[in-house]
Structure prediction request, 211 residues.
Amino acid sequence: MPLPPLMLTVVDHPLLRRDLTILRDRTTPHGQFRRTVNDAAAILAYEALRDLPLVERSIETPLEETTGYYFQDEFVVVPVLRAGLGLVDGFVRFVPEARVGHVGMERDEATHEPRDYYAKIPPLDERTIVFVVDPMLATGGSADAAISFLKERGATRLRFVCLVAAPEGVRHLEARHPEIDIFAATLDRELDQNAYIRPGLGDAGDRIFGT
Prediction:
């Protein structure tokens, strides 16, 4: 496999490889699938949060005063509905103060183009870092639409986090939003004729929710 684009970070961790194997397995029941998505999302969140700036503040330990560290910025996690909901808890376990917005996108099965059906977003400005989360980056259409929607509402600092990315989706985002970093557990081989990622893990939303 060729090296991933510079905008894409493929997170390499033994636990994430193990979790991805569980998620790919067609026999994994939806309860275990949902839990494993949550665990994998936490590892991805850990990496996506790695380089964020901190500010120093004095705090009191039980014994003396010392220097503590806090995030400088505000965070908003925006799952692309519905499958993106499965990744939210992995983020908020590290940043429980994060606000959560929602953008509903669904794929037209004939054209494979995204169409929106719901949105509820907290206020956004230049101090806010927005993490757009969705298990799959396939054609890139839904991610592009969600990111464009958020930019129109004031988002200037965005990152996209997914479990599985296809080269076609990465190229699409690279062309449309070259400033945005992507974090993924793996870069898979390709899309098939129905725009599903191969080898992939199937329909993540159906497998998360047992539908």
